[in-house]
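Issue 218. Parser rejects a valid record. Input:
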Amino acid sequence: MVTISTRPEPGSKMVLEIEVPSDEVDRHFATAYKHVAERTKVPGFRPGKAPRHVIDRFVGRNSVLAEAIDHLVSDSYDRALDQANVVPIDQPEVDIDPSSVVEGQPITFTATVPVRPEVELGSYSDYSFQLETPEVTDEQVEQVIAELREQQATLRPIDDRAARDGDIASVKFIGTVEGEPFEGGSADRMPLVIGEDRMIPGWEANLVGMKIGDEKGFNITFPDDYRVEELQGRQTHFEVELLDLREKLLPELTDDFAKSVGDVETVDELRSEIREAMEKRAGAEARHAFGDRIIDFATTNATVEIPEVMVTNEIEIMRDELRTRLARQSIGMEQYLALSKQSPEELATELREPATRRVKTLLVLSAIAEKEGVDASDADIEAEIAEQLARYDNDAKLREYLTSRRGRSYLRMTLRNRTLIDRLVERAAGADTAVEATEPTEQTKESE
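Output the parser choked on:
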């Protein structure tokens, strides 16, 4: 077992002095000889079977020594972190004298580790704002019912009257400026709802009164702030033909309709079900907003010197998050940078301020959690790992990450912060507002 002593250094660093006993040194030399022998072809010997003195003569003692040191440092450093309960925020600076690494003798080396800086907490509970949950109104409930009716609406072909507002029309049109067609100014068959102003203002009003098969020409002027600069303020002529016309028929608001859209028997029960769902959602959203205000308050009142390495790492994380969002839209990072007229360096500069703010938030939350005695248990972490793996079909790469030291540390902080924010909200709001713990808001998500 390795022996460790620690001492803090300025600049949020911790020096680990690690002593490795002689039997551990011998074990790492044995591992090094085995690995070197397995990948070295030595005439007259099968792979991995050449004796040590032959390996020393064939590849050189220094190659074995270098590999032994790599194994020794990696294994001993990991165990030292566990024993000292140190959470590094970047790779260590290792100081080891190769000439002192000798079989049969103990070895001592140091690892200087960047660690989280100390946070000077200010007030994080003495605030003037309160949890404010908006009331769900009758009008909002009726709006949801109206939307449900819209979703269940049917379309009836119209051939016995002229077009009017609210009708669904299909039109063919050609637009010209000074007799010349322009890009995007024509369509062979475009559906639209008359009166929704999907076209430029005033365009759809010209369809009112037309019947299927009617053709009509009219002039219209593009707005001065139209998105296409060449058309701004220009008068345009359109020739339009009405190809099809339909009206939307909404279902009547009856108990049968209520049964078709919900697990209810009557319209009144449907209203109650909708109100309950809206109140639950409003309460959850209010808690999220309240939690964010508490976090902002605590972060503003805290003082901490943020290490540059944490900001740099957070910028990379935010860049990866952006890359993932873009990939969902089939947009590459290079394409995004071209569209936004940015260089990679300019993007990093843009991300620096929000990355710094996010790092400070995470550091403050960690400090508050320690003060409040909030933590996540091993059982909580294991349950979260199982849940995430089940959600992503037991992905091998995800499993490797989540079960690593870094992955478990990430999950621990995420779960801890979720519990912490819920506790602070409950404390401030009072037990009468308690509801199920909600998912973490953007501010409580941990970086790796």
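Fixed in the parser; the record now loads. Residues 431-442, 444-448 have pLDDT under 50 and may be disordered.
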